[in-house]
Amino acid sequence: MDDKYVIGATRNLTTRNELNRNKHDKDLEADTEHIEHLEKEGSPPGKTKQASIKFQRHWKRFWCCYLIASIIFLAIFLPVFFLVAIPAIAQRIVDGTDLPLHAASLLDPKPDKVSFSLHTSLKVPAGLQIHIDPLKLSAFRRDVTPIDPYLAVPVPAYDLKGTTQIEVTRNDTNILNQQEFVQTLTDAVYNKRFIMSAKGKTLGHLGALKTPLKLNKDLDLAGLDKFRGFSIDSARLLVPKAEDGSNLAGVATLPNHSVFTLALGNMTVNLKSQDLVLGQATILNVVLKPGNNTVSLRGDLDIDKILNNISDIVAAQRDALQDGELELTATGNSTTYNGVHIPYYETILRGLDLTARVPIMKIFFGTLEGMMGGSDFDDALERFRDALGNS
Asked: InterPro entries, alphabetically (predicted)?
């Protein structure tokens, strides 16, 4: 019997046909997707080639326009770069460079002049070399307007490369403004730190290029801080008086906390117990160098005045006497150099009090030692009593 006459025989045939049809449709879809994928993968090279061809055509037609535009751009940019950018960069380097003051000196003082020297340095970035023309460096006070320099010193030409040491010495530099000069020295003597401002103009050479440069700096410097640490290391009475009339000799320490060396000459100071002047002392040929300076002093004490005011002196010295010491205060009186009064130093030192304590026993034994001069202790003590009685 044929399968077509069997009940249900066509059911499997229909199913197989539908399966075959579905498989054929899926194969068509897969082929279509594969073709589209290949087309997509192949499209970039074609587009890139077309863009390249378009650019070449465009460049061949308009290259002269681009050349003219580039020339115009460079004609505008290069002058701006050389005339504005490079000077600004060079000035920025100068502004950002420190100007440390390693040492300075005020020597050979005169009433209106002083020999001024300084040692400083300038540091420029590595690989850069700048030649600067000579300039005039002016010292001034920043808080005073208009700016009025009190000193001006010429600085020679220098080639700056890396860290360059700069040393300047100028003999007989004119003091351009006494008031500002005195105020700056006062700040230096009385304070732990003080500001010294300096400015100048010059031309800088970077190879063949020239650019104006302005130097304008505030130097934060260590001051003398009122000679902090001043001490009278030894003192003795001269019995009898020396040929120059002095009856006091001693050794003192004057600290200089600054980088300045100051030639003060001969200093005369008043010796006081509080506000009572007991006499005067002179320190010869004073040159204060940075650090501690040991100086010799000779003075003339007014013994009669001391004896007549002994009760007031003892009252004023009560605290010091309890510690077995005498307290003396030295105040500036006069300053001379080569026999000429130096007014700016006198103005500053007259307002400065230097106080120190000296052990009484050190004075006593120092005095006896000076009196003995080879004799025995009893003879020296007797001469000491006679000297006090004859004063």
From this structure: DUF3712 (IPR022185), Tag1 (IPR046368)
- Taking the chain, what is the end-to-end CA distance rounded to the nearest angstrom? 172
Candidates 229, 214, 219, 153; CA nearest to 184 is 219
Q: What six digits make up the tokens of 174?
A: 């004119």
For residues 174 and 113, the answer to whether their CB atoms sit within 8 Å is yes
DSSP-assigned letters across all residues of 227-293: GTT-EEEEEEE-SS--TTS--EEEEEEEEE-SSEEEEEEEEEEEEEETTEEEEEEEEEEEEE-SEEE
pLDDT in tens, the chain (391 residues): 445 444 444 445 455 555 455 555 555 455 555 444 444 454 455 667 677 777 777 667 767 776 776 776 666 655 555 555 667 777 787 788 888 999 999 999 999 999 999 999 988 887 788 889 999 999 999 999 899 999 999 999 999 888 999 999 999 999 999 999 999 999 999 999 999 999 999 998 877 778 888 999 999 999 999 999 999 999 998 888 888 889 999 999 999 999 999 999 999 999 999 889 999 999 999 999 999 999 999 999 998 999 999 999 999 999 999 999 999 999 999 999 999 999 999 999 999 999 999 998 888 877 777 666 545 555 555 655 565 555 5
The packing angle between helices 360-372 and 377-390, to 10°, is 110
Give which of 13, 165, 24 is closest to 103, Cα–Cα.
165
Helices (H), the chain: 9-80, 86-95, 178-190, 303-308, 310-316, 318-322, 343-349, 360-372, 377-390
Q: Report the sign of the C-alpha dihedral through residues 302, 307, 311, 314, in that order.
A: positive
Q: What is the DSSP string of 342-377?
A: -HHHHHHHTT-EEEEEEEHHHHHHHHHHHHHTTS-H
Amino acid at 388: L
Structural contact between residues 258 and 268, judged by C-beta atoms closer than 8 angstroms: no
Parse the chain into domains and list their residue ranges: 17-94, 101-222, 226-390
pTM for the model stands at 0.74
Consecutive H or E run containing 215: strand 209-222
Fold of 101-222: Immunoglobulin-like (2.60.40)
Give the phi and the psi of residue 65 in degrees, each rounded to 5.
Answer: -65, -45
